[in-house]
Write a structure and sequence with these properties.
about 625 residues, mainly alpha
């Protein structure tokens, strides 16, 4: 089963690859784009909207070259229409760069040409989004624009007087409160630099180091390759910021290994999909949404990174429990030690490439901005790569990293630009407050009901939107409702961020599962359903940190923190046991339901329920241990 093209047209149209003089010309564009961004984010002093205009124009130009308009479009060369769109995209950015001072001097009283150029850029952005991101986000962005204009046509509380087209165009296309707004600012600064950082790490073959490191660390244990997939995906995901890229990078090695030791293909693909999805939650680099969250909340990125540590560790603990219990149930073993890479040799030959990550963490902890940290991390990769021949970059590798960085950043930038339509519309119409009031009304003022509504909204939105766009929409509309019900802002935004990320593994549009299915040679929907089951124990974690914000280091008390973490681990293990049907010995159907119920009860804020559930857990786990010993002795 394939993803329907109308849900995600970008996914079924392969990117172009160029050769010869054309390839050289396009390479010059991508390399110059990366170098310009390095200059803008280090020594260049540009007004934010001008920097965003350059970013959006170059990213749209790259999109029109690499993403064909239709499945029947030529693959070898761009069409003449593509070249026209490239010229128009670059012209729009140059117009803002050269003419925005005049527009400011006129107090945003635009000339007809200003409005025409803004409309042109907005139309180009819609087409770029259709190609690179897919129809769901594109249509959603346009719906919000039409809602801003035709508010009188909407029923009840959603009705408003509407705005003129001129005012909408000025707001959306000529200010920093529309497509050039905060989401694109984050994309042009933090996100681009960290994507480039990841591209340089890949050029030094650091991804191979992560795989060898994970193999040496976990390969010999029960069901070792699955645990290798979990460890490698966590490491790689922490720097890639893309779940699908994580699957493609680590899955090419871990999925065949899992199949070799006895995992069926669909389960091998599901493990990689679930593990790679969680990579976006893993500090220090947590994807574009985390940087946008930092900007939305007005807090240092280090605080976001610190808050994300415990949920990410708990999520991967849940996945590790699932694969271990599955391996025990199937009687699977690890890989022979003689077939595994040496941990010592791996660290000696490529371990120095962990230093750039350590430097980034150090500078973030020391209070430096993510931008400064990313720039120094990038420089450190280039310098440190020359310490070993196995990681040394050639000039070709250097150009390839610059090229890959610009190409990888394009879909993220386009998504952030389209989200500007949504953010601008919400600010103009006040629809965010209306939705928040409706959530509170439908939930009857009960927090658990509001959380379920927000979760469903995020998961449904995420079925067609990238994680970044899903977070922004959910945070803009649903997070205010949670905050009005007493949830700390950081916990409310993390709730939206978490489920926006997890939507990538929720059927039917589980994009990471479809990517993993291709590598595993399994049916995509079977991989998606199994991957969702593996991630299910982790899907309860947001409720845990909403009811216990100290897991995000909000109102931190060590004793309570340790109690909550221990209860969370027990709850995750209990839920995993119930889902897999295994502890020390196989579980009957009624026992599986019991352990699932115990796991769910562990996320409640009521201490009495937790204590009772803990008692049940200990009693029935002891029963399972005794049954296992009796069976072993027999």
């Amino acid at each position: 089963m394939k993803i329907p093209s109308f849900l995600n047209p970008a996914e079924h149209i392969p990117n172009r690859e160029f050769a010869g003089r054309l390839g050289l010309g396009v390479l010059v564009l991508t390399v110059v784009t990366s170098l310009i961004h390095c200059w803008m984010n280090s020594f260049g002093l540009l007004m934010t909207i001008k920097m965003n205009a350059i970013h959006l124009g170059t990213m749209m130009a790259i999109t029109f070259l690499y993403y064909p308009a239709r499945s029947k479009s030529p693959r070898e060369v761009p069409s003449w229409v593509d070249w026209v769109l490239v010229v128009l995209a670059l012209s729009g950015s140059l117009y803002i760069l050269l003419g925005y001072n005049r527009l400011l001097a006129s107090h945003l009283n635009p000339l007809p040409l200003d409005l025409a150029m803004a409309v042109m850029t907005m139309a180009l952005l819609v087409e770029a989004s259709r190609r690179a991101v897919g129809l769901p986000l594109t249509i959603l962005g346009m719906l919000f624009v039409f809602y801003t204009k035709f508010g009188l046509w909407f029923p009840g509380l959603f009705a408003h007087k509407g705005f003129s087209w001129e005012r909408i165009i000025i707001r959306m296309g000529l200010t920093d409160e529309g497509i050039y707004g905060v989401s694109l600012t984050v994309s042009s600064t933090y996100v681009f630099m960290f994507i480039l950082f990841g591209a340089f790490l890949s050029a030094t073959k650091t991804s191979e180091f992560f795989n060898d490191f994970a193999l040496a660390l976990a390969g010999r244990f029960r069901g070792g390759p699955a645990k290798v997939a979990v460890v490698a995906s966590a490491l790689m995901g922490s720097i890639s910021g893309s779940a699908q890229a994580n699957v493609a990078t680590t899955g090419a090695i871990t999925i065949p290994l899992m199949k070799r030791v006895g995992y069926v293909p669909y389960f091998a693909g599901a493990v990689e999909a679930a593990a790679s999805t969680g990579g976006i939650l893993m500090p220090p680099i947590m994807g574009a949404a985390a940087f946008i969250m930092s900007t939305f909340l007005g807090v240092p990125y280090f605080k976001i990174m610190l808050a994300g540590a415990v949920p990410a560790i708990l999520y991967y603990t849940a996945i590790m429990f699932m694969v271990d219990l599955r391996a025990k149930k199937r009687g699977l073993t690890g890989i022979e030690r003689s077939e595994l890479p040496s941990l010592k040799e791996t660290m000696l030959h490529r371990g120095h490439m962990l230093l750039p990550l350590a430097l980034i963490i150090y500078f973030l902890v020391a209070g430096y901005t993510p931008l400064f940290s990313a720039f120094l991390g990038l420089l450190s990769i280039i310098v440190l790569s020359f310490l070993r021949q196995s990681t040394r970059m050639s000039f070709r590798d250097f150009l390839s990293a610059l090229d890959m960085g610009a190409r990888s950043a394009a879909p993220v930038a386009i998504a952030c630009g389209v989200v500007g339509f949504i953010v601008g519309s919400v600010a103009m119409t006040g629809v965010g407050q209306i939705v928040a009031l409706n959530i509170i009304m439908f939930s009857g003022g009960k927090l658990w009901a509001a959380l379920i509504l927000c979760m469903l909204a995020a998961l449904v939105l995420g079925m067609g939107l990238p994680a970044t766009a899903c977070y922004i929409v959910t945070a803009t509309i649903a997070a205010p409702a949670l905050q009005q019900m007493g949830v700390p802002p950081l916990a409310a935004h993390f709730f939206a961020f978490y489920y926006g990320t997890m939507s990538a593994v929720v059927p039917p549009v589980a994009l990471t599962s479809y990517t993993a299915a291709g590598l595993a040679g399994a049916k995509p929907m079977k991989v998606a359903i199994t991957g969702f089951g593996l991630a299910l124990s982790g899907l309860l974690l947001p409720y845990l940190f909403v009811y216990n914000p100290m897991l995000l280091f909000v109102d931190f008390h060590l004793g309570q923190f340790l109690f909550v973490v221990i209860m969370a681990i027990i709850g995750i293990y209990s839920l995993s046991s119930g889902i897999i049907g295994m502890q020390f010995y196989g579980l009957a159907a009624w026992e599986r339901l019991l352990f699932v119920g115990i796991g769910i009860s562990m996320v409640t804020p009521l201490g009495l329920y937790k204590v009772i559930s803990l008692g049940f857990f200990l009693f029935f786990t002891l029963q399972n241990v005794l049954r296992h010993r009796k069976h072993a002795s027999a």
